[in-house]
Every structure is written in C-alpha cells, then in structure tokens.
Amino acid sequence: MKETVNEKPCKKHEDDIKEAEVRHKEWAQIMASLKETVNEKPCKKHEDDIRESKALNKELAQVMASLKETVNEKPCKKHEDDIKEAEVRHKEWAQITASLKETVNEKPCKKHEDDIKEAEVRHKEWAQIMASLKETVNEKPCKKHEDGISELKLLHSELKLLHKELLQTVTSTNEIVKQQPCKKHEDDIRESKALHKELLQAKVDNLPCKKHEDDIRESKAFHKELLQTKVDNLPCKKHGYDIEEVKQIGESTIEMLVYIKNWVMKRDPDMIDTLAQKASPLKMTPLGELFLEVSSAKKAVDNHLDYLIGELEKTKPRKPYDVDENSASVLSENTGGEIFDDIKQYLYESPDIITLIDPESKKEQEIKLSMHLVIRLMGIYLRDKYFERHPDIK
C-alpha cells in the first residue's frame, strides 16, 4: 500500500487543491485591486475589509497547506495497524485456501468444487475491497473523508465476520475432506471394486478361450516336437568330432597329470622311510598311521569309503598294481570336493614342518607337510580297504 500512495495527491484531492489555488489567486487579485483603489492609509471600512480579506487568505493558505499535508506517502498509525492486520489475515486466508486445494483430490466432487469456487470468488472480492481500502486511507483524513472511512470501518467489520465465516467453512470443508470418502461414496466404491473383481475373475476363469486354447496346444506340440528334433540331432556331426577330440585330449592330459603326480609322490624323500616303508607294495609306518590320524585323512577316507571304493571300481583294476596306482588317482581327482575340507583346514593352520613323536622309536620326527604327501598316504590306506572288500584281487 505504501508503494501505491504517490507523492502527488489523488485525483479527488488534486481537484480540491486546484480549486483552492484558483480561489487564492482571485482573492490575491481582489486584494491587489483594493490596494490600488484606496489611499495609502485606507479608511476604516476598507481597513476592515482588508483585514478580513487577509484573515480569509491566511485561513485558505492554512487549509491548502493542511490539505497538502494530509496526502502523505505513509498512512497514519491507526490505519497502518489495520492494514497490517488485514495483510496478515489475507495471508492466513490465502494459506488456508492453498491448503484446502492441496487436501482435496485433484478433481473434487461436485459439492466441494462449488465450495471452492465460492471461496475463491469471496477471496477475490475481499482482495479488491482491501486494495480499494489501501487507496482511500490517508494519514489525516479531512472531515469529508471521515464519513467514508467510517463506512469503510463498518465494511471492514463486516469483512471480519465474512472472514470468520470463511474460516469456519474452510475448517468444515477440511473435516469433510479428511473423512473422504463419505459413507455413501465408500459403499459405492466398495461395491464397484467388488463388481470389478468379479468381472475380472470371470474373464480370467474363461481364459484362454476355445480358439486360443487350441492355438496354444498346437503351438506347444509344435515347439516340443521342434525342440526334441534339435536335441536328438545334438551335437551335429562337425561339432561331435570336435567334442570327442577335446574329450580325448582332456582325458589323456588328466591321465598324464595323475601319472606325474603319482610318480612324484612315490619318489618323495620326505615320505619314504619316515611315513612309509620301502616294500612292494609300500606300507605305512606307525608314524605314518599317526600322521594320517592327526591330519584327519583317515577320518576323511572312512567317512566316504563307499564312494571312494565305488570310484575305484569304475577304473576296473585287474591287478593289485592297478589298485595301488588308481587309489591315489581317485583321491587326486576329488581334492576339490568336501572329502578334503578338513585336511585343507589342517594344512592351512599348520606350519610347513611339524614335529611328531614316532610311536616306534619314541623320538621326535620332522615332517614336511604337503597335499601330495597326504594323498599318497590316503592312497595306501584306501588301497588296503579295497583289498579287504576284494580279496580275490589281492
């Protein structure tokens, strides 16, 4: 409002000031003319007229000065408080209106839509009235404007009552919105959901239709036949030769690695004489049996004995030599399985060289730990267990 009151007076006051200035000029001319027509010392009658004219002129000047002072850039304290109060209430009302718009649905029902429209219309009217009030309020209104201000105050009181009613309407509307959907609409929504669910279920139960069911059955049969044809023809002739060749290379490579591993284990100087006696076949010493027990290798063979003997039987050994060779091979092929979990843990937690007391000599013996050492001792133990089940080979 402070920005809307210019330094220049409003149109109405401007006309009053112009009229006062015209009258002031006329009185000045009359006075000048009067001074010319009278003597240097006017007579008693003219002297009274001049004094009266001066008083009137002075009064007019004061009125004009007062009128200019009444048009001020800033409103009086009383009106300033009223304006601030009006601005605060206007802001609160705008926030409530914004809150009301946020709390209702994107598309409110007919009743709420009418309430919102009515509230918006009242808000616009109130804003226009407030804007008009800001323009008409002066710091020191003249007598003539005091009546208009009284009317405005009365209107302002009515606006307060209207604002109160609007607040009550908004509060009531918010409570209604919070309770949405109302009982009637809630029943309609529930009924609609039930009907929709029933219709959907009916459509789902009837799927697929007769025509599509035959198409699907025919498609499945064709797909199954096509898939079976492709599977029966796998691998193709070209890839079949390649796969067979790769298998042969892989098997020969594994056999070669196992052979090299067994050859290394047989010639391990840390094992011969200490853990196994030089004999044909090799036999474990009492120290070797103790190490087999300590390293959990004996327990591993015993827990998986049926499986290991089954794998050994698949190699179809004909002679004791075959059993001796293939025992270590079978164990080597299973180092990645759970059979060796406890053994790996023991090797991981133990130092590279351990010391055990030889049960036979009662002396301390150093043993250099390695996986192939454990496998070789397990192979001897597995070989002996195999001979127990197959005495015909032994």
Description:
The protein is mainly alpha-helical and 394 residues long. The protein has 3 domains: 60 residues; 107 residues, no CATH class; 122 residues, no CATH class. 73% of the residues lie in helices and 4% in strands. It has 14 helices and 4 strands. Strands 1-2 form a two-stranded antiparallel sheet. A two-stranded antiparallel sheet has the order 3-4. Strand 1 and strand 2 form a beta hairpin. Helix 12 crosses helix 14. The longest helix is centred in the middle third of the chain and has 36 residues. The protein is elongated, with a radius of gyration of 58 Å. The N terminus is likely disordered.
Main sheet record: 2 strands, antiparallel
Tell how many strands the DSSP assignment holds: 4
Going across the major beta sheet, what is the strand order? 1-2
CA-based shape: elongated
User: Which sequence of SSEs, written as H and E, runs from N to C?
Assistant: HHHHHHHHEEHHHHHEEH
Mean pLDDT: 76
Low-confidence stretches: 1-6
Q: Give me the Rg, rounded.
A: 58 Å
For the record, the count of structural domains works out to 3
Helix content: over 70%
Structural class: mainly alpha
Number of helices: 14
Strand content: under 5%
Distance between the termini: 118 Å
